[in-house]
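Instructor's aside before we start: the two examples that follow are unrelated to each other. I chose them only because their records fit on one page, so don't look for a connection. First example below.
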Amino acid sequence: MAWILLLFAGLLEIVWAFTMKQSEGFTQIVPSIITLVTMIGSFALLSISMRTLPLGTAYTVWTGIGAVGAFIVGIAFLGEQLSAVRILAAVLIVSGLILMKISSTH
């Protein structure tokens, strides 16, 4: 169950990163509210998952999901650059997430 909560925490991190960008420095009210609500939800789910998962594993997976997800959203919706080096960086992050999951005893 902790892994499922952690996955949803990471997905909410992607949402709040995207809406934070859309908030234009918290000057746009709707994206700002969505950012704050999803941040709270993301942190809450992360903290619940940390009841059973090790700190290093939970935090690394959470930030990794957010980083790779934000990378994909940036390319898909914001027209950000796609290059071989950026793809390699994302692949390395995902590899690290897989290794963290494999090495976890929970």
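Example two begins here.
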Amino acid sequence: MPLTVRAALTLATAGVALASLPVPAMARDASARGEPPREDPHIISVGPTYVHDPAYSGVRTEILVAEQGRRTIVNLKATGFPAKTAGRTFGAHVHRKACGKNPADAGEHYRDPRISSKAPLRDKEIWLDLKVRRDGTAKARTVHRGLVAHRAAGSIVIHAEPTDPRSGGAGTRLLCTNVPF
């Protein structure tokens, strides 16, 4: 029996470890019925897979990835940030490889090879900077104007600093969640 998005999220919030879970599209024919297209997630990942800074060991991540036409939509929700981080912004990016014991194992940022080298870095990569609220939660959503090829990316990393728009750098890697793009 296929697992619905609601059931997967219920299991995730109940503490069931779901490293990655493909979810079937639930309403592909919405446009045929005259409804606006929905963002049906085809990937749900919860984590983090690795915590690289023990100060963030209480953080939990939920990631939903959907494809809509020729776009990739990524939603990241993080909970459990330490109280002292309220108001801070953390850079978060899609990385090329899966997480590993060492922070560098996730490799470089994913860069879409189909987008012109002259385009701004923000258009070539997938960034999800998060601003932490008073309750320790943070959310980010981005729409990338291309599709991520199968296995061209493998994780989302949360960094210690906001993303520098010129270099894409965001400081130390704090957390990493595997996402089977």
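The chain has two helices and eleven strands.
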